[in-house]
Amino acid sequence: MNKKFKLQLLFGVIVTAAVIYYAIKVVKDLKMTVNFPAHINWWLVFAAVLIYMFSNYIRGLAYSRGIEPEMDDMVSLEVIALGHAFNMILPLHAGEGLRMAFFPSNFSVKRRTKLTIISTLSDSVVVVAISVLTIPFAHITDKTMLQAMWILLYVYIGLLSLLAALLYFVPRFRGYVREYLKLSAVKMLIWVSLSWIILVLTYWLGFVAAGYNPQVSVQMAFTVFVTTNIINLIPASPGAIGLFETGTVIGLAGLGVDKSDALSVSFLLHIIQYMALLPLGAFLYIKALHGKYGQAIKAALRINS
Question: Which pTM does this prediction carry?
């Protein structure tokens, strides 16, 4: 294990400890004996887990049916799901970098980097777009959260304006990005958008499983989507532990949900994520190591470690 990787891990552990400490301070006055809602429909939880897995499959189609048709559906799923699974156990969104090892073995480092950056940008654009459209419906009252949302919107508008200017005035830059800025990029955004909407469905099922009204749960699900994704922009603890719970409590407070109840259901929603991503990630990791790209993946992981 090289020195750089050790420092990354050490920094990640420190940040994780700080986030968990802050989260404990935020919720220290809540009724921590309330771990879960009293009555949970575990069949609905199981359905939510399966749908969460399916959302990763749909997200992977943004590659195979979008910007990178050379990748088949299964390899695309491996890249997406393994990146998310690593994020659940490693700090600082480290899975975003590790997923590069799971692209097809004939892809160059430059090509993998491009695809990873484009994937991250498409996620960000879709999340911000859905969040902005959802805010009037979500009844978010936290001023800091609202300010962060509008700042993000203005930043993305500025970046898109800068991109348009570069495309128009800089021929070299236009040639550099022309490879991906075409119909395939639109297809990618459609698949990405669909995957995030399916993910909101898992939140809705989680709320219904916890005993909330199905109609009210729609609003709650979109609210949690907005607040947790804004706060998860902070690359900190593994699986956004502490951050996800804080975002859920902040979001549901605007809907009049008691903080202790909000914390309780946030645990359930977070466990659904772990129940979906860890088994799926473990299966795909074993499959990848024994599959067509096994040797290349092992070599890439040895280099990183």
Answer: 0.82
Closest CA to 81 of 111, 108, 48, 54: 54
Task: Report how far residue 257's alpha carbon sits from residue 252's, in angstroms, rounded to the nearest whole number.
Answer: 5
Q: Is 292 exposed, middle or buried (0-12, 13-18, 19+ CB in 10 A)?
A: exposed
Integer Cα distance of 210 and 269 in angstroms: 10
Q: What is the pLDDT of residues 124-142, one digit of tens each?
A: 889 888 888 887 777 777 7
Sign of the CA dihedral with 191 first, then 196, 197, and 201 last = positive
Is the CB of residue 133 less than 8 Å from the CB of residue 125?
no
d(CA 68, CA 142): 40
CA 86 to chain centre: 11
With the C-alpha atoms ordered 255, 256, 259, 264, is the resulting torsion angle positive or negative? negative
